[in-house]
Structure formats: C-alpha cells, structure tokens
Specification:
The protein has helices at 3-12, 32-44, 122-131, 152-160, 246-256, 268-276, 279-289, 301-322, 336-355, 358-365, 378-382, 417-423, 432-435, 470-474, and strands at residues 51-60, 69-70, 78-87, 90-98, 102-103, 142-145, 164-168, 194-197, 205-210, 214-219, 231-237, 261-267, 404-406, 414-415, 448-449, 451-458, 461-464. It folds into four domains: 25-146 and 277-322, no CATH class; 170-267, no CATH class; 323-355, no CATH class; 376-474, no CATH class. Residues 365-386 and 436-442 have low confidence and may be disordered. It is built from 14 helices and 17 strands.
C-alpha cells in the first residue's frame, strides 16, 4: 500500500457516523458502538479468576483536548485516563474518565448497597460499577486496589455485594480509625510490628504493619490475628539504605545484617496484594511491546488504537488458554509476536476473499504454502504476472477440457504466463531438459499473445499462453 493511499484511508476512517455539534460530555460517543461491543465480548468470553485488580491506565495523547490529564510520575505522563478491571493482563471491564467531566458513562442507578452511613465518592462509585460487571452472583472474587481507591465506605458496599476487597489505604480516607493514624516519618516501631482495628459501625479491618516503611491496609478478605496461620515465608532482598533516615537504616541493619537476601515471615495479605495487584500493569506492559498507535490529530483516535491493542491482547490470552496454556504443543499460540503476525495475515486473506469471491475456490485448489496472490496490483493480476514466491495455478492439471481461445475484445496482447514463469527459473533447474524444447529456452524472450486457456485462471483472468508451444507445456509440466 502506498503512502498516499494509507493517508487517505486514515483521513476518512471513522467508527460511527459524523455527529455535528456533539455535546462536550459525550465526546466518547464517537467510539461508543465499538467500545460497548468490545466490552460486552470481553465479559462474555472470559470468566476472571478469583483475584482481580482495579487501577488506572494511561493512553498517550499530547494533542489539544480538555479531557486529557497530566500525571508526571506515570510512564505515560500525559493522555487519557481509563479505569480498568483486569486479571493478569486480561482487561475485563473499563471506564473512560475526563479532566472536566470526571467519569463518563457512569451508571448512577446501582442497587441499594446496604446500611452505609456515608455516600460514595464519584471515584468509589466508578470502582463499584466496574466491580458489579463481575459475575459475583455465581463466583467469589477478591478485588485488589491501591490507596487512591481504597476507603471504608467502598469496602463496606463491596462486602454487601459479597465481593471481598483488599488494598493499601491513606490515613486521611473516610472513617479511617484515629488510633492507627501514625505518621510514617515519626514511626519507630520494630520490624514486623502489626496492629489492627475495626472502625465502629463498620465491618472492615484496618491494619498497620511495619516493614522497611509503615504499611497501611484495609481488607475484608483476611484475618490478622497473630495466633492464626496468617503469615507466609518469602525471600526478601535487602532494601537500599535511606540516606537521611537513621531509624530506617538501623531497622534494615537489624533485620538483614550483612546478608543480601533473607527468608522472612510476611503477612499473607501483603504477599497476595503484591502478587495480584499488578494485573493492570501486566496489560500495560503487553500493550507497550507492539503498540498500534499512530501520530494523529483527532482526539478520539488514540482511544481507538487502545481498544485495538486491548482486543488483540485479550484474544491472545484466550487463545493461549484454549490451546493448552504455556506448555502446549502449538507454539504459535504461545508467542505474542507470532500470534499477531498470524492474525494480520488471516485478516488480509479474509479481506481479499471479500473483495474477490472467486479467490476462495482457487485457494481450495492451491497448496497452503502457495496462498499468496500473484502480483500486488490490479494491472499485474490482469497481465498474468508471476513472481518468485508464487507458482503456476494448480487448476492447470485438472481433468477437464482445456481449450485455447482467442480474446476478440482484447485490445493488445498480454505477456505469456509460462514464458514469465520460465524466466524466473534458476540457471540450471533440475528438470532443465523438460524446458529445453522451447525454441527460446528457459531464459528466452517473454512473448506476448492474444490467446489464453478457457479454464485456467489467475485471480479472475484467463491465463495468457502462446499458441505454438506454451499451451501444451503449461498443462503437462
């Protein structure tokens, strides 16, 4: 495809019919038919595992738009922000956000969420809407989220829906126990110190645990009683020593000493949180390897490329699981680049069949290794062009009547297909004697002719053949 043609296709590409004077809160409506359909299919073809996570995704866009946000500490510092619910890289549900309109497509008619004494914030409401997309009536789930989302009213609403939750917390979040509001910089607790409290009127456990820094957790899925088996042995590397924190340096030296790695007993909640919280990050990582995003001016195009990448990654994960997991025999389903290459060629072949219906019948008569159209332009197919990577059509050996006919409507002669094929042979082919009967030899002149076979075709055109010699050899070679 040429550059000009690609630019024209990119220029006139659209997902939905153009809408004039679109209201600002409905800017994402340009993607709505595709976005809703894909989200429905994501939730239809996969049931997530028990451990799922919710986090932010950034879609790179530095153009002019009031809906983009800027987060300097993110790998993508500027672009659109999307809330996504993922399970080890599989994007199950998502929601667009905006800097001026906050949350787009938010359902404000959720069912009654139990005896919550505080209303949910818009961010918590968005998390709850993503969580209710899970099939929580039939299966049990544990939702992991970071301190940007975690708060006690949200976890109480999730508990009412029988969805467990676990996440880090901020001391200034709603209804956080005052007894646990210890500042990290002033904390001088021994390593491994753990303490918890249940706020009055809530069924949520708030926990603090002294690691190299003070860790705060909210959970409805774990118990933190010391007499229970709630610890897991893990190998921990020695952390870097802070320069200006004498208390932390002494704590690290006391636990690790001179050893670079030690086996320590860690709370199970923190181990599981670190293990399963990265589901959204894995999806971002997979998408960054083979991103399809292009430089565009229209503000909705980056969202389309993000949907395209998400669709390919989800389909790859489904195919990988369906074909036997990471240890399966089908290597094409275990390699991400090979899967994308196979998918691209299948789409090209499908599109060619839609444009040329007769090509489907021709593919059934051709070997799988020769499924490449002869030529890459309309003119080359019309002239019966033969390339180095293609072969003569197999239909020439069919037990039917092949007749040499003259095309009276043809204004000028076309190049003989067999003469072109012979010109592409190596200097000393194995069956050189077979072609030596030609008066011009294998590398002779490529002749023109008005004659063609009435049955054999290349693409949708009859194969042009010389009247004297090439017609008989073409059907017997």
């Amino acid at each position: 495809m040429g550059r000009v043609r690609f630019e024209q296709l990119k220029r006139f590409f659209h997902v939905s019919p153009p809408i004039e004077n679109l209201p600002r809160p409905q800017w994402y409506r340009k993607l709505e038919p595709l976005s809703s359909a894909l989200q429905y299919q994501f939730q239809r073809y996969c049931i997530p595992a028990t451990e799922v996570s919710i986090d932010e995704m950034m879609i790179r866009f530095i153009g002019r738009s009031v809906h983009t946000v800027r987060l300097p500490n993110k790998p993508i510092p500027q672009g659109y922000k999307v809330f996504a619910l993922c399970e080890y890289g599989y994007t199950f549900s998502f929601m667009y956000t905006s800097r001026v309109e906050q949350f787009l497509g938010q359902d404000l008619d959720l069912p009654y969420l139990g005896p919550a004494t505080l209303p949910l914030s818009p961010t918590s409401h968005a998390v709850l809407q993503l969580a209710t997309a899970l099939p929580y009536q039939q299966y049990r789930f544990i939702l992991y989220c970071d301190n940007y989302f975690s708060n006690i009213p949200l976890f109480q609403a999730l508990r009412y829906l029988q969805i467990a939750a676990c996440g880090t917390a901020r001391p200034n979040s709603a209804e956080y126990p005052a007894v646990l509001k210890i500042k990290k910089k002033r904390a001088a607790l021994p390593w491994g110190t753990i303490s918890g409290a249940i706020p009055a009127g809530w069924q949520i456990l708030a926990v603090i645990w002294q690691d190299k820094t003070l860790v705060r957790l909210l959970t409805t899925a774990y118990e933190m009683q010391p007499e229970l088996d709630n610890y897991t042995i893990r190998r921990r590397r020695r952390p870097l020593r802070p320069r200006n924190r004498d208390a932390y340096r002494d704590l690290i030296d006391h636990i690790w000493g001179e050893y670079p790695v030690r086996e320590l007993a860690l709370p199970t909640a923190t181990v599981d949180y670190n293990l399963h919280m990265g589901g959204v990050d894995i999806a971002d990582q997979r998408r960054s390897y083979y991103s399809t995003q292009l430089c565009v001016v229209r503000s909705w195009m980056p969202l389309f490329f993000w949907l395209l990448d998400t669709m390919v990654i989800n389909s790859f994960l489904i195919a990988q699981q369906h074909m036997g997991g990471s240890g399966g025999q089908h290597s094409i389903w275990q390699s991400h680049p090979r899967y994308r290459e196979r998918l691209a060629w299948d789409l090209v072949e499908k599109g060619y069949q839609l444009l040329h219906p007769t090509h489907e019948q021709r593919l059934q008569l051709t070997q799988p290794s020769l499924r490449i159209p002869e030529g890459n332009t309309h003119t080359s197919r019309e002239m019966g062009y033969i390339t180095k990577v293609t072969s003569l059509p197999s239909m020439r050996k069919d037990q039917v009547t092949h007749k040499l006919v003259r095309n009276e409507s043809q204004k000028r002669p076309r190049y003989c297909a067999l003469c072109r094929f012979l010109s592409k042979l190596p200097p000393d082919p194995p069956n050189y004697d077979t072609f030596n009967h030609s008066p011009d030899g294998p590398h002779g002149k490529i002749r023109r002719t008005y004659f063609a076979c009435s049955y054999c075709k290349i693409a949708t055109f009859n194969v042009p053949l010389c009247k004297t010699y090439c017609f008989s050899l073409f059907h017997s070679i």
